[in-house]
Amino acid sequence: SGAMMEYKATAEGEGRDVAIEFFEKNYNEGLKKEDAILLGIKAIEKVKKERVSEEEVGICVIDVNGFQMVKKIPKRK
What is this structure's pTM? Predict the structure, then answer.
């Protein structure tokens, strides 16, 4: 049987611990979807220690409306 777990932000794979620590320090309840996507990108960049482009990552959002692939990364502030 599987266990049901709820996460506001999580990571898997190589660099998981670094990414989760980044989320623990930088995630805020009530982030707008665009800001949450950028936070995920920043976590990847923290792990890779370099900037990433849209071609390098695949992003999906899972919320109360279901599953949505993100085709374009929001503009960085």
Answer: 0.77
